[in-house]
Design goal:
With 146 residues, this protein is an alpha+beta fold. It is built from four helices and five strands; from the N terminus they run βααβββαβα. It has one domain: Aminopeptidase. A five-stranded mixed sheet has the order 1-2-3-4-5.
Amino acid sequence: MIRPLSPVDREFYLAMTENFYGSDAVIAPIPKEYAERTFALLMEGSPYAEGYVLEQDGKRAGYALLAKTWSQEAGGLTVWLEELYVVPEARGCGLGKEFLRFLEQKYEGTARRFRLEVEEENEGAVRLYKAFGFEFFPYDQMKKEL
């Protein structure tokens, strides 16, 4: 089951983001205050972000974080799959597939592009995303921290 994050999920969300940012799926951890700030934004109902809980057998087993932006290059709304994390004991049970199907259905006819970042070494995630039609960009992205 997939459902929106709610205030009762705060500690779960913070723990899961700590696990995600402590894993090999990302380059470096983030300060806990960033996750706290994101959760507060999600609870305010921001039009720019959405958070979800992934449940298996009635238990919280992961989370997903989306960010929305306009892209001229894509010709419309772009939905970023910022984070998708499933606890190790629930991996391989179809939660990632279920969330990607949910994402496609939710934004059918409104989004022009889905984007995400993945470490190439995360072979399971790469296989999953490719199975859903994701492709690597032929260029690198850049950033500037403020």
